[in-house]
User: Fold these one by one.
Assistant:
Number 1:
Amino acid sequence: MNRQVTMIQLLELICIRHMRRIPLIAGNWKMYKTTPEAKEFIVALSDATASTQRRIFLAAPFTAIEGAVEAAKGTKISIGGQNMHDQLEGAYTGEISARMLKANGASFVILGHSERRQYFGETNALIHRKLLLALKEELTPILCIGELAHERESGDYLKILNLQLKECLQSLNAAQVSQVIIAYEPVWAIGTGKTATPEIAQAIHRFIRNWIEESHGIDCAEQVCLIYGGSVKPDGIASLMQQTDIDGVLVGGASLEVKSFAQIVNY
Ligand code: PEP
């Protein structure tokens, strides 16, 4: 009897923990959309997703953040940035700081996107510094990790992911890690139309959750929101979201049109 009660309590605990991870659908607009385009998109998206219980994030270009925040007021849509500098201010021509994002109403920021790593030489050490600053400034970080095509083919991908997690999350305590959203974005799947199968995506999300459990404990691992990114389209979303450890998605190309993004939100 006692044993039965314990099992029921355990199941309730698992459900409560799982429920805390509200599904998250995040769009990354990259270098697309002016302020008027962003506003028009948000009004239409808000109408098309009025009944959703899911969290919706849109990472807008810096110039459109303020207008997007204004358009998203009173909706379920949160607006964030796609990058930030690792210092709060200074002589860094062309850069944007966490404080500026916050002042314009951003609530989250993408850090370590593979396009930043590949085209702008961002390293795990730099991303780690940005992560600490984002947390300090109360911006929710979406930390992107993922392996290149040849790293998957050679079988080295778990080593790469382990290194990215270790170097980006070093020195963060459990309370900090539980606030980080981790996006697994295999680089071979980004913008290529080659989505990871739900089984591959689930296996890596499980690997990440296990990694966090080992480094920061089970509570932290159960709380942390893990999302998948890489050519997510309306027809593949349901099978990805059915996976136990996938709490949401980060969407590039398909977040640019209201129709496809609303279909992903309403899957
Ligand atoms: C991305 O840029 O984070 C992304 C996942 O892009 P896409 O959906 O176009 O592959």
Number 2:
Amino acid sequence: MINIAIFISGRGSNFLALLKNIETGVLKNCRIAVVFSNNEHAKGLEYATKAGIDTIVIPSKNRHDRAEYDRQIITALADYNIDLICLAGYMRLVTEELINIYKNRIINIHPALLPSFTGLHAQKQAIDYGVKISGCTVHFVDSGMDTGAVILQKTVPVYDNDTEESLSARILEQEHIAYTEAVALYADGRLKISNRKVIVTENKWVDLKY
Ligand code: GRF
């Protein structure tokens, strides 16, 4: 059983998708131990509370001390014996210190085919650029913005009449599938990182301590 911490800043639909898939047995050997948010108004916190999952909120408004802020997170998570951190709409960069403590154990989902369209409004960036295919990427987190090693990607078509909203909705459906698949691979010990490539092994190759 792996203990997951989910980091959110807002809506929390990726968190909810993971939770549902755990509850229905689609995603095995996983437990969401805690949901962390930098925003006390994040809608996703309500789902956590309803599901009886612990929540931690450390408001980040007017906090410019990223190192100190993340140290508070590290302290708050210490009791939870966390194996994996899933960033799910978490709108802050994480510091080297947090990344090193959870080395190769932090993953993120981004609504574009990385390395294209990093950062905010990735779906709008895709539309404005005029790409015909977009999608989502689950990747390990490094200290850059959306730059870590890619675990898996899902594609969707981009139509001429797409708006940011319509494309976002099409991608979001795939995000929920992709995140569950990536967490399952992680929980099964099937992700092997070699340089910056993630190799999905046929069989379990590691006992989750990378
Ligand atoms: C998703 O599109 C995710 O890819 C991006 O932020 C959005 C979060 O949505 N990083 P939700 O909070 O999971 O509903």
